[in-house]
């Protein structure tokens, strides 16, 4: 997908492609690197160069970005004495190793601009000032160390630190946000340019949350204002967000990422968010000489109006006329001419006389997404199922006399951790209630291998409690509790010390008798059996017995479903509609297309995401293997496959190409 996406960005008037580098993808274990296939960073940089664009490489290597664990590989957690992102020798050792690895890889391929390559900027760290105070004097020391370490790598191009007002010289401090023309205090030295590394075109979305809609007019207003205030670099975060495939999304973040960007999740144009900024980019480039070489002045031209003017000695002139009144048009005088400005808008005058662009006047025709059904998976005999095994205490090999922390136990090898115990209640135990407290994301509870109830927290509510009436048998009872993480945390200080998983488990009988299992002997199993056997891969299907009698009744849970399908004809993007499923993960031909959580509704009573992108690169013409892991009781018989296109509102003729 890279060439087409880069071409569409270039077609929108973009000059620079900015990307993070994902440490946890590239260094799976200390010193073991992977830059193959989708992780081929060199190939990505060379594709940018081949299309005549520049690159900004945000190495981090902490990146946040709603990416699981902020991009850190989980093996860092087990380095003795480590504290992330501070003046800590173990952390600095591994951070420097990875940063140097990336820089040297880029150098070896001649990819820095100082070598004739496309990379004009590199970033070290990421929004560190948000947490710097938590580390006291060690925070400031770490900033100085990180800046010097990066600069000493000798890239020949500038380094940046975003949202870091104390970025040491020569590292450039930059702004992130939606209104940097209003909020940015500017560079911390007169010899540094004013740069905006993240102009949020929307916002990330979490399960249970609504999409954030930001208008093309608002984006254009703040870009024009930043340029008017001597801004020299603006990056759209995101211009294309794409898909959090596999388990890469951070805690509670949905699989689709910044679908409201100028290029949507599928790489299709979202209008007018693509076309309106394109016109703005052209207008700004039309004024490049006075912007670069002219002297700037600014002055009031009304109660809520301002003029920013750049003039050259040779006569070149450009003006930005700003109307900050969000409700009323403004009629104003500028250089003996009368101009009318729309509410909350900026007009650009490349000769200080004639308006060629106004941020609130949109000429681009809006479009909408068209979903065309391609296949219904409604034939009962086309599906087979495998019910995962509910482990009991005697099945476990890992045991402890306490409730273990979830992430440290799974090492991010799985979302799932089983907590199991066996106990025999007194004969007097009646009306038992299972009480669970969790700092994880989801809990599925089982008594004697029978599903009892599921519960979950949310992005804003970190812990949750469950009180569940249960049925116990005379004799020994097996309690199996599945703790689930929907992504690891990605932000904040002391990421290495976070706690997740169960914190208290009790059974109360007739409100007088209490069994406290907090310090009981527990048995643990990391992951599900189907995960361990990798039954989502075609070569492993025979590792388990699949049944042709599928059952998605209310008591069904932890079920793997499989079927096959042919790829739709054409080249339109493809998506699975999972609106009748509950929660789980989907694989196509062994490739995970991500987690789904359709049963988690927004305040409006609808799922946060129902369509899940299946890249055509994952598909064969026929016989594609679809595997669905359903944690709850979703109905696979109403899954459907769609092709995705866009059409102008007044046309309804689908397209997925650049406008002519």
Could you characterize what this model shows?
The chain has 660 residues and is α+β, with helices and mostly antiparallel strands. It has four domains: 1-283, TIM Barrel (Alpha-Beta Barrel), CATH 3.20.20.80; 297-358, no CATH class; 369-386 and 533-648, Galactose-binding domain-like (Jelly Rolls); 393-527, Galactose-binding domain-like (Jelly Rolls). Helices cover 16% and strands 31% of the residues. A hairpin with a 2-residue loop joins strand 13 (330-334) and strand 14 (337-341). The longest helix is centred in the first third of the chain and has 20 residues, at 89-108. Residues 1-283 form the Glycoside hydrolase 35 catalytic domain. Keywords: Apoplast, Glycoprotein, Glycosidase, Hydrolase, Secreted, Signal. InterPro entries: BetaGal_gal-bd, Galactose-bd-like_sf, GH, GHD, Gly_Hdrlase_35_cat, Glyco_hydro_35_CS, Glycoside_Hdrlase_35. It comes from Herrania umbratica.
Provide key terms for this protein.
660 residues, alpha+beta, TIM Barrel, Jelly Rolls, 7-stranded parallel beta sheet, 6-stranded antiparallel beta sheet, 11 helices, 35 strands, globular
């Amino acid at each position: 997908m890279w060439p087409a996406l880069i071409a569409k960005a270039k077609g929108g008037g973009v000059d620079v492609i900015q990307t993070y580098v994902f440490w946890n993808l590239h260094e799976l274990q200390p010193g073991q690197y992977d830059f193959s296939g989708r992780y081929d960073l060199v190939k990505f940089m060379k594709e940018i160069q081949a299309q005549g664009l520049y690159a900004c490489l945000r190495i981090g290597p902490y990146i946040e970005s709603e990416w699981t664990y902020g991009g850190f590989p989980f093996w860092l957690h087990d380095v003795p004495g480590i504290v992330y992102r501070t003046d800590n020798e173990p952390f600095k050792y591994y951070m420097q190793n990875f940063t140097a690895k990336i820089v040297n890889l880029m150098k070896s391929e001649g990819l820095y601009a100082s070598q004739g390559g496309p990379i004009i900027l590199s970033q070290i760290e990421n929004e560190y000032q948000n947490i710097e105070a938590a580390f006291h004097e060690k925070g400031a020391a770490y900033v100085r160390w990180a800046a010097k370490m990066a600069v000493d790598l000798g890239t020949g191009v500038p380094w940046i630190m975003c949202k870091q007002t104390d970025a040491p010289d020569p590292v450039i401090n930059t702004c992130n946000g939606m209104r940097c023309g209003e909020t940015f205090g500017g560079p911390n030295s007169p010899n540094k340019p004013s740069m905006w590394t993240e102009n949020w075109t929307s916002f990330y979305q979490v399960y249970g949350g609504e999409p954030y809609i930001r208008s093309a007019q608002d984006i254009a207003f703040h870009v024009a204002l930043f340029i008017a205030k001597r801004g020299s670099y603006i990056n759209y975060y995101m211009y294309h967000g794409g898909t959090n495939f596999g388990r890469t999304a951070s805690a509670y973040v949905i699989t689709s990422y910044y679908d409201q960007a100028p290029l949507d999740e599928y790489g299709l144009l979202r209008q007018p968010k693509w076309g309106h900024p394109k016109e703005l980019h052209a207008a700004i480039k039309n004024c490049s000489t006075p912007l670069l070489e002219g002297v700037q002045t600014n002055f009031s031209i009304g109660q809520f109006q301002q003029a920013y003017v750049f003039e050259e000695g040779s006569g070149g002139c450009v003006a930005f006329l700003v109307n900050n009144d969000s409700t009323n048009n403004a009629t104003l005088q500028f250089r003996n001419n009368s101009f009318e400005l729309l509410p909350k808008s900026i007009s650009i005058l490349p000769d200080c006389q004639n308006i060629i662009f106004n941020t609130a006047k949109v000429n681009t025709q809006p479009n909408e997404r068209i979903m065309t059904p391609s296949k219904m998976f409604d034939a009962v005999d086309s599906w087979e199922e495998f019910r995962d095994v509910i482990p009991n205490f005697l099945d476990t090999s890992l045991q402890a006399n306490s409730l273990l922390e979830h992430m440290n136990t799974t090492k991010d090898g799985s979302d799932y951790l089983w907590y199991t115990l066996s106990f025999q209640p007194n004969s007097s135990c009646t009306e038992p209630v299972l009480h669970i407290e969790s700092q994880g994301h989801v809990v599925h509870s089982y008594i004697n291998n029978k599903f009892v109830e599921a519960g979950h927290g949310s992005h804003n509510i970190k812990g949750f409690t469950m009180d569940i009436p249960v049925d116990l048998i005379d004799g020994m009872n097996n309690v199996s509790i599945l703790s689930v993480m929907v992504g690891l945390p990605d932000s904040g200080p002391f990421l290495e010390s976070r706690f997740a998983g169960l914190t208290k488990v009790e059974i109360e009988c007739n409100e007088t008798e209490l069994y406290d299992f907090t310090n009981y002997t527990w048995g643990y199993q990391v992951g599900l059996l189907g995960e361990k056997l990798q039954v989502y891969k075609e070569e492993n299907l025979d590792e388990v017995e699949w049944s042709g009698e599928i059952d998605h009744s209310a008591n069904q849970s932890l079920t793997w479903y499989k079927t096959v399908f042919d790829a739709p004809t054409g080249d339109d993007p493809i998506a699975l509609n999972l609106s009748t499923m509950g929660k789980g993960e989907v694989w196509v031909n062994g490739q995970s297309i991500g987690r789904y959580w359709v049963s988690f509704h927004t305040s409006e009573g609808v799922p946060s995401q129902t369509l899940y992108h299946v890249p055509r690169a994952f598909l064969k013409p026929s016989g594609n293997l679809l595997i669905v892991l359903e944690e709850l009781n979703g109905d696979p018989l109403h899954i459907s496959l769609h092709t995705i296109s866009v059409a102008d509102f007044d046309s309804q003729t689908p397209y997925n190409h650049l406008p002519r």
